[in-house]
Amino acid sequence: MSKPTIIGFPQSTYVWTARSALGIKGVEHDFQPIAPPANRTPEHLARHPWGKVPVFEHEGLSLYETTAICEYVDAAFDGPGLMPKGAAERARARQIVSIADSYLYPAGVVRYALQYIFPRGADGQPDRKTIEGALPDIERVLGVLADALGDGDWFVGDGPTLADLYVGPLVAVLGMFPEGKALLGEAPTLQAHLGRLMGLDAFRGAAPSQG
Ligand SMILES: N[C@@H](CCC(=O)N[C@@H](CS)C(=O)NCC(=O)O)C(=O)O
Q1: Computed from CA positions of residues 116, 112, 152, 16, in that sequence, does the dihedral angle turn out positive or negative?
Q2: Which of 22, 64, 146, 172 is deepest in the core (most CB within 10 A)?
Q3: CATH fold of the domain at 5-82
Q4: Assigned CATH class of 87-201
Q5: CA distance 208 to 193
Q6: What is the pLDDT of residues 122-169, one digit of tens each?
């Protein structure tokens, strides 16, 4: 089989998840970095109607939405499974993925980290009101995730699954900014979980600093 391609922003948590899923499967891929506003060009909008990343291409197949990409990668290639086998464990992993998608990403990235990355407040500063509004929601979701992790190494079962690959990049981004770092100081098991992920070549190799 030929190598798949991932197109996206190197800094994107979703790109990190998709690329590390490929890495865990042991599938080499080409990475085509793009930067805004290239995601709004007709060429990219033809690949992704909402102009987001990642986009995945493989042997004539073009996919967007990280869950769909990861599901394809898991089914199409040999290598360790990205999802647990048992019905309850599988549902639990999918629940964590959905929590990351629905609650952690909107509060932790859109309403929090992006205020620092693209400041829109007065004098080009991060918008404090938006940040302050996001913090209780981030704290709440971190609490739920810490409870779900418990004293385990991984969210479900005895190895990394998509649940871990979704949460890890988001925890890493939160830790880059002061309030996120402080909240994570109260969630040491989530920090240790990120450290465990960073110990995996597949995850660390897909991290933004690695390009
Ligand atoms: N539901 C999408 C979300 C992807 C997403 O939000 N990507 C962000 C980067 S982390 C993006 O492309 N943002 C650019 C924009 O919205 O213009 C997925 O699962 O892939």
Answers
A1: negative
A2: 22
A3: Glutaredoxin (3.40.30)
A4: mainly alpha
A5: 18
A6: 888 999 999 999 999 999 999 999 999 999 999 999 999 999 999 999
Q: What's the pLDDT score for residue 182?
A: 98
Q: What is the pLDDT of residues 11-39, one digit of tens each?
A: 999 999 999 999 999 999 999 999 999 99
Residue with token string 């960073």: 198
Tokens of 167: 């949460």
Instruction: State the Cα–Cα distance between residues 62 and 6, nearest whole angstrom.
Output: 10
Report CA(151)–ligand 1 centroid distance (Å). 31
C-alpha–C-alpha distance, residues 208 and 211, integer Å: 5
**In terms of DSSP bridges, do strands 5-8 and 30-33 run parallel, antiparallel, or are they unpaired?**
parallel
Pocket test for ligand 1, best of 11, 14, 71 (most atoms within 8 A of CB): 14
Kindly report, as residue ranges, where domains of CATH 1.20.1050.10 are found in the chain: 87-201
User: Ligand 1 site: residues with CB under 6 angstroms?
Assistant: 9, 12-14, 39, 51-53, 65-66
